[in-house]
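Our collaborator T.R. sent over the components below with a one-line note: 'Predict the complex.' Nothing else. No constraints on interfaces, no templates requested, no preferences about which chain binds where. So this is a plain run: every listed entity goes in together, and whatever single assembly comes back becomes the starting point for the next discussion.
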Amino acid sequence: MELQRVHSFLESSAAARPDKVALVHDGERVSYRQLNRAANLLAGFLVQRGVLPGDRVVILLSNGVKYVASYYGVLKAGAVAVPLNLETGQETLSRLLDELQPAGIVLEQGAGHLLQQFHLAPPSVRFLLAADASFAQGGAHLVWGWDEALTGEELPQGGRTIAPDALASIIYTSGSTGQPKGVMLSHRNIVSNTRSITEYLRLTENDIQMVVLPFFYVMGKSLLNTHMAVGGTVVINNNFAYTASVIRQMAEEGVTGFSGVPSTYAYLLHRSPLASFRDRLPNLRYCTQAGGHMPRDIKERLLQVLPPHTKLFVMYGATEAAARLTYVEPERLPEKLGSIGRAIPGVSVRVLDPHGEELPDGECGELVASGPNIMIGYWNDPEGTARVLDSNGYHTGDLGYRDAEGYLYVTGRKDHLLKVGGHRIDPQEVEEVLMSSGSLLEVVVLGLDDPLLGKKLVALAVPLGGNPSDRSLISFCHGKLPRHKVPGEIRLVAALPKYPSGKIDRVSCLSLCG
Amino acid sequence: MDLKDEIRSFVVDNFLFGDAEGLTDDSSFIREGIVDSTGILQLVAYLQERYQVAVADEELIPENLDSVQRVATFVEGKRGGGSCAGGEG
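Returned assembly:
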């Protein structure tokens, strides 16, 4: 029978290959049997605490074995897994807890400020599970240690009846503007997307994935689920900043897949021993990239540096789509370098005009997606949901077109368009040109309020070294862009603010401009 | 100011906004959320410029760079021609 719940992937792999290594982290190797048992114990603990189907359980953990056991344990109990960014500020955290009204929170030292102030947690919270603490006392109390919580009884497999359409997870988007939104994904959403991804990446139990992206980010979650689904192995490395340790571990573990967002690859190309390890990554079958537009220049350099047998999958998606919407087949990438590819199996992505009519090839409109992976809606936000979901599907907010072969191209985001002196300018186009100068690690183009033009274009650029001058960069732009698209100012900075996923935080970049 | 104090000052000024509370010589930059990946690039650029040492890509490992103490030992090793962790493991 086809599996219909997210945690069934883990259960099925644990039954088929109990002794296979599911997770590798910091020298620890955890088998499918051990992982499934930990998740069953966690589920048993939740049921004991009175957690009911549909209750939210917040997970504030960094990537690790306990995160994975908690995630699947929450799902097994029929509850809703809400992983949050560990670095969420106190104010935002209070707001999110207030809107989620969770039954409990699993957290670690890094989120200890919450533990110290748990009186701020809403009254719905019946337990706090401190994953890296141990408490001797038993009985009725609020704060539990990990070992203490996992000494109870396992929830037997199938112990809770869960409908395929039941809410499985709420994932907060970083959001390009304003407050983060809680994306509600059902078991069906995640299961269908997991299946599509394993199909087009041709994942098998022999696959070993290096994960440097956080699991609370939808792409990290997807890496986890797809590998649990095929009985593969996930290698967790939380030290991406030290790129040599990541590359070395990839070689040691015989990693077959690596995944990143554009800044991951920019960083690897600029400051890592990737090139010198080319001959020592014989198993690296593929790399995937999603999480926003990656400049052409970086794709080209990556194709040169990666081992010749390593395929590069450029992909596109959204949290609202349970992660994935489209991909470019690696063999077509050189001729479709600017494309996000075609829809993944079971999904359709169309280019629509503002009236919902499909546009002919080559004409620019909004990318609208439909399929079993599209979210239920935003948590507690029917208005926000109605703005993006309608009978046509999910309105991505991304603008683009389709070529004669059905390949899609994103030209920018609706809410990033800047009105400069009567022209509508897409910052992505300007960023792409600046990156093609070859002298920048990364760049963001923003619109600052201007009394004359409405907005004026300012670029924040991180030089690769060699310190290019802002004048030379502006002059480079003049050679490639019409005058109105050339930034009025280019500020060279040491780094750009980013979300933990590695995506550039445009709001914080804007506040840097003062 | 000795080497360790200078490194500590750089970290406090650039990543902790002047608030040194809780930063010990052995605090892990990454695990404790003090520095992110672009911060490590900034730190390495600072070491290269300030102490005129070359940091190879292969040396970008936590053993060399993940605390004030480790950075100080790493730089001292480089300046004294001693051996550091990293390179070909």
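Summary for T.R.: The first strand of chain A starts at residue 21 and ends at 25.
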